[in-house]
Amino acid sequence: MEDYRNIVEDVLKIAKSKGVDADCILNTNSLLSLKSEDQELSEHKVSSSLVLGVRVIKDKRVGTSYSESWDKESLGQMVDSAIGFSKYTKEEPLETIDLKRADFLEGTIDKVYKEDDSSLEEKIKFCLSLESEVKKKDSAVKSTPYNNLSRSESENLYGNSLGTFCGQKTRSFSCFTSALIEKENQQSMHYHVSVGRKLSELNLSEVVEESYLHANKLLGAGPIETGHYDVIFKTDELADLFSCFSGLLSGHSAMNDTNPWKNKVGEVLAMSEFSLLDDPSFEKGFSYTKFDNEGELTGKTTLIENGKLETFYHNSKTSKFFKVPNTFHAARSARGSLGVSGSNQIILPGSTSESELKKDRYFEVVKMQGLFSGADSVSGNFSFGASGYLKEGDNILTPAAGITISGNFFELLKEIKMMGSTTHSNNSRGFFSPAIRFGGLKIAGK
């Protein structure tokens, strides 16, 4: 990290010599990716990248530039490019570099940067198992078209011209596999993901079981009767649905008049039991970060409490615009401009037991298609293809595929019937929620 810090310091020295305020972000990533096909390693890819980005502020105008080279000449050209670009931008009096901190802030902790104690041979064996274990489940498994094991290591450094420096290293593993089942000229496929900080933390049996389970159960499934149904989304699908409307919580989009909730802070927008937090240090969360991309210390933020919108994600600029406290969610990659972003999102559990929540008939969504293209973040309307099960309790009445679910996200939050008392995580462990039963969603089937 010391060598990389020297690069950032060189950029800031160049900016200072040219009379501009500046901050610099350095992102590195190294990736090991393994795939198997027909019980042989079909991919063994190792890649790495280093990207350096500078933001300069001169005469209240902001310019950005980035470079993938870090020799002195390239660094000088990068700063000159940012200064040149700033001359053609509008004035941004609220976008300033204000944070001054004398000590280096180290964000690397054992939780997110565990030693990789697995050999390459062990990784290859694990990768091959992603395919072989699925095929052992059933002779009807035609193939595992998608399977992968990867290890990612990244390092992020931030520094500004006021002497603030912070850095963090992370290491993570992920794997997924899939099951393509074919019987009587019918096909069905499903895949599942697992993440961890070490190879030993990946759940091989879970990705195999889940991939096979749903591919098998949805084989031959067709549409159910058109009508209005209570709906429960699997946690991954619920996370994707909320991701489609993430702009509703963005102070950046509110400042730019693209957020329909812009003037609704303090209003009740969801069922009274619904509360949503963002917590980068959440014990079970995978999206850990100690500082944002302005170098500020992060912390827990309550976004929605008992149905009432409390605040948006803010950085220094958006908080000044709205004259509200900064929530320290500044987001800027080496290649990008200043925005906002969250970390671990947590919907607090409700008061209903899972058995009560699942009483009577409901539809459980386990797979969605076309969600992002079928969602309008301004109107709140959405429409997407789905597969899943018509259920009563934990009993499957009938599997279903080829249906379309439509509704309005704003109304959806108000039409929550029940919230479960047990918290579940999505596969990537960045979204946590109880099971939620939504009322009266339109399902178009047969």
Rg of Cα set: 24 Å
- Please trace the helix and strand order, writing H or E for each element: HEEEHEHEEEEHEHHEEEHEEEHEEEHEE
The biggest beta sheet reads:
8 strands, mixed
Q: What is the distance, rounded to the nearest whole angstrom, between the alpha carbons of the first and last residues?
A: 60 Å
Describe the fold and architecture.
By secondary structure, the protein is an alpha+beta fold. The chain has 2 domains: 2-217, PmbA/TldD fold, CATH 3.30.2290; 227-242 and 350-444, no CATH class. It has helices at 2-17, 72-86, 120-137, 204-217, 235-244, 251-255, 316-322, 354-357, 409-414; strands at 21-37, 40-58, 61-67, 105-106, 141-143, 148-160, 165-183, 186-196, 227-233, 276-278, 301-305, 308-309, 330-331, 339-340, 345-347, 361-369, 381-392, 395-408, 416-425, 431-444. Strands 1, 2, 3, 4, 5, 6, 7 and 8 form an 8-stranded mixed β-sheet that branches. A 5-stranded mixed beta barrel has the order 9-16-17-18-20. Helix 1 packs across helix 2 (72-86) and helix 3 runs parallel beside helix 4.
Outline of the structure:
Helices cover 21% and strands 39% of the residues. With 446 residues, the protein is an alpha+beta fold.
SSE map:
Layout: H1 2-17, E1 21-37, E2 40-58, E3 61-67, H2 72-86, E4 105-106, H3 120-137, E5 141-143, E6 148-160, E7 165-183, E8 186-196, H4 204-217, E9 227-233, H5 235-244, H6 251-255, E10 276-278, E11 301-305, E12 308-309, H7 316-322, E13 330-331, E14 339-340, E15 345-347, H8 354-357, E16 361-369, E17 381-392, E18 395-408, H9 409-414, E19 416-425, E20 431-444
Parallel strand pairs: 4-7, 9-16, 15-20
Antiparallel strand pairs: 1-2, 1-6, 2-3, 5-7, 6-7, 7-8, 9-20, 10-11, 10-15, 11-12, 13-14, 16-17, 17-18, 18-20, 19-20
